[in-house]
Structures are given as C-alpha cells and as structure tokens.
Amino acid sequence: MHDLVQPVLTIAGKDIRDAVNDRFVILITAFLLLASLVALAVAAIALKGDVATYAEAKAGLIALGKDASTIPDPAFYPLKLLRGFVEHVEIIGAIIGILIGYRAAASERGRQTLALIVTRPIAQWQFLAGKVLAGTAIISSGLVLAFVVAGASVILISGVMLGPEDIGRLAIVMSAAGLYALAFFLLGFVTALWAKKLPNALLLAFTVWLGFVLIAPQIGDTLDPDNQVAGGVFKQLQIAKPQQLEILQSFSTYETIRNGIEVASPTKHFERLSFAILGIKDTYAGQPLMPILAEKTSDLVWLLAIALALGLLLFARRLDPNRLSKE
C-alpha cells in the first residue's frame, strides 16, 4: 500500500510547494478575499445600523415604563450578509480553479517534463491522483481562509454573533464551494493536458467558464418573470402559492426552457444551495437546516456529478507522451 500511495503524495507535495512559491496563486486568492470583504462590509454596516436602531427603540420603550420582556426581539439573519461573498466565490472561485488546474499541467509541459514523467515507472493514475490531490488541497486551503475571514468579518463589522448552527451552515456551503471549484480545476487540468497548444486550452476553459458561470445564469434570471419586480411579482401582488402554481402551469413550456438553461450551469446549483442554506433567499430565512438540506440535495448531487464526470474523463483517457511536449 505504501508503494502505491507514496508516489501520489510525492507528486502532490511537489505541486503544493510550487503553488506556495507561485505568488500568482496567492495574489488571486487575496483578490477574492478583498472583493468579498468590500461587499461584506457594506452589508454588515447596514445590519449594524439596524441593530443599533432596535437597541435605541427598545431603550426608549423601557424608559417609558414598558416591560422589557414584552418587547419582541427582531429576527436578525447575519448570514444574509454573505450574498456578495457567495457571488464572488461563484465567479472568482471558478477562475482560481481553472488557473490552478491549468498550471498543474502547464508547469510540467512548460518544462517539457510531463512526457518524461509518464514514461517513468509510475502508474498514470498515481501521477493524475497526485495532481488532483494537490489541487484539492490548494483550493480547500484558500476557501477555508476565505470563509473564516468572512465569518469573522460578519461578527466584527455587524456586531451580531454567529451561533453553532450558523457555523455549521457556513461549513456546508464551504464544502459545496470546494466541490464547485474542484470541478473547474478539473476542467482546466483536462484541457491543459489534452490540448496540442496550451494557449488554446486556456481559451477553451474560459469559454466554458463564460458560458456556464456568466451567460447561462444571467439568461435564466433575466427570463424569470418573477425577477422583474423587487421582491417578486407574486409577492407584490399577494398571490397565494396555489394560484402561483396554477399560473405557472400556463407557461410550463417557457418555464421548462428557462429553468433548463439555468440548471445547465453548476454556478446556479451552487447559488441555489448556498442561498437556501445561508437564508439569503427570504423563503429560507429562519427555516430549520435539515428540511432545507433535504430540498436542496439535488443541487449538491448535480455539483458532485459534474466533478465526478470530469474526474472519470481525466482518468479514463490514456496520456500520449508524443503529444505532451511544449509546442
């Protein structure tokens, strides 16, 4: 067993050390943190103002003789502040995944060592597994740092503490973010391994990124009639849920096409899952975690299926040393 695992760990360790020495990976991770913190700070300051307003109003009522126990506590949902953070993870996290995956293959091809490696007495799966293990570790480290900073910032800026369940929700979303970024890592790695010319690989990977991260979700949101009015058309018109379903049945074909465009995107699945678990979408704010997880299992399964499909694609194809030299 040691002889099987040791080459994997050796390759992974080498890639991790190279990534630590590569300032570019550190810089784009820092950019994710900075962009997310700016969005988070704006929302957190607004929440802090709401908390202060409530405290002043409560103090005023108590001063007038109101019994403090009869004053209802407002429902503050600090995890709602992470909307901008999640949206940045959707875009920048996918870019980081692609670049780390591309670099994992390009670093070997650029030094013209990849063709040599696959002819050495090491199984192809060990080489690929080492690369994927390193990429997973690098991505996970960056996301753990980002989510810890985001959670701490919510507390420090807004003044609202996070409970154990809030931390658990953050951990679930962080895990989903890791799976999401891993899918794009595999995309960048596969294209860089197989393309005859490395620039073409990066172009192809970012074309896929553009289609599935930016275009497909935007088309789905734009074509959704309920998104055309703040809060939703149904909510503004106070239409009950049964009537909503009846109305939607009249547009079933249109809705099927629109939703199909949305669900083709792993970004949309990650967003739906994250917005529900964190209570960013009003429908799920204050709701118990387990029913939300049960409802959103399909989104998690989609993310897992996409990552597995790319992984199987990677390991199923035989590497050809004659095509791996730098061109």
Automatic annotation (TrEMBL):
- Give the record's keywords alphabetically: Membrane, Transmembrane, Transmembrane helix
**What domain of life does the native source organism fall in?**
Bacteria
Name the PANTHER family for this protein. Answer: ABC TRANSPORTER PERMEASE (PTHR43471)
Query: Could you tell me what this protein is called?
Result: ABC-2 type transport system permease protein
So where does this one cross the membrane?
A: 24-47, 81-102, 132-158, 170-194, 201-219, 300-316
Q: Does the keyword Cell membrane apply?
A: no
* Pfam family name, one: ABC2_membrane_2
